[in-house]
């Protein structure tokens, strides 16, 4: 039998000059690689970024591609678990701080139990829940905060007037903030809950609140004992005098039960003052409780429309709680749920309103120093050990450190359902930054323990309201 492997039958490659060769199997050792292998991870990351941007543009919910997952937190579809962390619904981000201001609240003091100390402490300032304004004690004659507010979980500010010293509180601007109490000629509401500390309150000219714009001013109902206010909110305010929306309030507000008081103006200039949901056209000995059905006070605000500019942000403007600007005639009263709004929360054309039955809310969301958010389980087509990705995040305040030992935000991966977690191998910032301040970062390819249950986890640390707030806006991962 002929042995064609014998050297005499071998034809050198240089001798092949024409013709064709039949298909043949060439040994691997005889093949030389002329092209290096291509790392497709950056390409996959770019595709994930494009998919993430498309998802944001179309407001799509979390979705899967082959061996990829995209989520910009349109809803909770892609979120498996949150621990002291939450998805902020309106702005669609995840963080351990997701506090959002109520849209129409300009200033609010609720005095939560957890952050408000009962008793008296000289020099203590009470910053409103939105962080822009503070209540500063105008004297030091008694207790500043009472244990029980109108609603469970909240305390009450206490002014000391007749029968308890003579001081109240002045509203001042927190350094570095913008004064929000400018109603302009539009709608607004000023309201609170109050109750007298004891029954020995004289019928004197005390006030719930006093707002003065530096020129003609604006005051709340006045507690008159022998005279009436000299000018009213009727559109013809006498220059240099205070306009009052009501007077002769002694029968309506001199009570040791909680009473809701609200002054409100709508966009058309209609305005009214209610005590516990009711109004009164003249004064006398009637009751104004739940709602008023007698002659408990004199309300001038409903006689005509009132659209004068109400701006209390100027250098000469003042706002007092519980007394008039002179510092005299304070009221010995507990105050709960003080709120200023730039909308008409009630209808001034109605003779009665529904008294709020729950605590006011100025900010909602969570506020925690640390937290974690874990994705839903992602099922690959085959067991995986490699994961990479991209994230979109922003610095609401402060500048976040990504990863490493002193991180503010880090991303971890697992391929075995969470039995083993591995932090992203690297964080590479991409440019440009979005005009909204959102930043793009590539997450380096990370080796995990093999498995068929892929997930990512965002871990927040060192978060603090107003100084270090990191927001995660979107995630795209490849596996």
Notes on the protein architecture:
The chain is mostly beta strands and about 475 residues long. It has helices at about 40-60, 250-255, and strands at about 65, 70, 80-85, 85-90, 95, 100, 105-110, 125, 135, 145, 155-160, 170-175, 180-185, 190-195, 205, 210, 220, 220-225, 245, 260-265, 270-275, 300, 310, 320, 335-340, 365, 370-375, 385-395, 410-415, 420-425, 425-430, 440-450, 455-460, 470-479. The strands form nine sheets. Strands 7, 10, 11, 14, 20, 21 and 25 form a seven-stranded antiparallel beta sheet that branches. Strands 1-2-34-28-32-31 form a six-stranded antiparallel beta sheet, with helices on one face. Strands 8-9-12-24-16-17 form a six-stranded antiparallel beta sheet, with no helix packed on it. The longest helix has 18 residues, at about 40-60. The protein is elongated.
List keywords for this structure.
479 residues; mainly beta; Jelly Rolls; 2 domains; seven-stranded antiparallel β-sheet; six-stranded antiparallel β-sheet; 2 helices
């Amino acid at each position: 039998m002929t042995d064609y492997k014998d050297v005499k039958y071998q034809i050198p490659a240089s001798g092949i000059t024409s013709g064709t060769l039949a298909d043949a199997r060439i040994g691997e050792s005889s093949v030389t690689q002329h092209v290096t292998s291509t790392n497709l991870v950056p390409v996959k990351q770019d595709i994930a970024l494009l998919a993430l941007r498309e998802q944001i543009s179309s407001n799509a919910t979390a979705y899967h591609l082959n061996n990829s997952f995209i989520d910009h937190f349109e809803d909770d579809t892609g979120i498996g678990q949150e621990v002291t962390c939450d998805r902020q619904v309106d702005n669609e981000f995840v963080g351990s701080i997701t506090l959002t201001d109520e849209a129409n609240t300009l200033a609010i003091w609720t005095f939560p139990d957890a952050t408000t100390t009962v008793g008296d402490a000289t020099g203590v300032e009470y910053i409103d829940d939105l962080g822009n304004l503070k209540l500063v004690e105008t004297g030091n004659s008694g207790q500043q905060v009472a244990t029980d507010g109108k609603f469970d979980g909240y305390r009450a500010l206490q002014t000391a007037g007749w029968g308890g010293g003579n001081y109240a509180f002045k509203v001042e601007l927190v350094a570095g903030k913008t004064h929000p109490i400018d109603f302009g000629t539009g709608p607004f509401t000023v309201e609170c809950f109050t109750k007298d500390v004891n029954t020995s309150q004289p019928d004197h000219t005390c006030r719930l609140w006093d707002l003065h714009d530096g020129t003609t001013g604006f005051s709340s109902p006045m507690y008159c004992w022998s005279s009436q206010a000299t000018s009213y909110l009727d559109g013809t305010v006498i220059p240099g005098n205070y306009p009052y929306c009501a007077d002769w309030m002694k029968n309506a507000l001199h009570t040791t039960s909680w009473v809701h008081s609200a002054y409100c103006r709508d966009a058309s200039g209609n305005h009214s003052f209610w005590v516990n949901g009711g109004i009164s056209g003249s004064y006398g000995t009637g009751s104004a409780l739940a709602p008023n059905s007698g002659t408990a006070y004199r309300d001038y605000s409903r006689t005509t429309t009132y659209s004068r500019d109400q701006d209390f942000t100027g250098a000469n403007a003042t706002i007092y709680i519980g007394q008039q600007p002179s510092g005299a005639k304070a009221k010995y009263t507990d105050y709960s749920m003080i709120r200023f709004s730039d909308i008409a929360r009630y209808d001034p054309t109605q003779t009665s309103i529904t008294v709020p039955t729950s605590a006011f809310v100025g900010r909602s969301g969570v506020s925690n120093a640390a937290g974690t958010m874990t994705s839903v389980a992602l099922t690959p087509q085959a067991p995986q050990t490699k994961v990479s990705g991209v994230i979109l995040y922003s610095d609401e305040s402060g500048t976040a450190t990504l990863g490493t030992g002193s991180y503010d935000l880090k991303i971890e991966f697992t391929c075995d359902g969470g039995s083993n977690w591995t932090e992203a191998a690297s964080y590479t910032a991409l440019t440009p930054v979005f005009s909204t301040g959102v930043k793009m970062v590539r997450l380096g390819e990370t080796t995990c323990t093999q498995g068929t249950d892929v997930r990512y986890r965002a871990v927040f640390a060192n978060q603090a309201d107003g100084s270090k707030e990191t927001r995660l806006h979107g995630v795209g991962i490849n596996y």
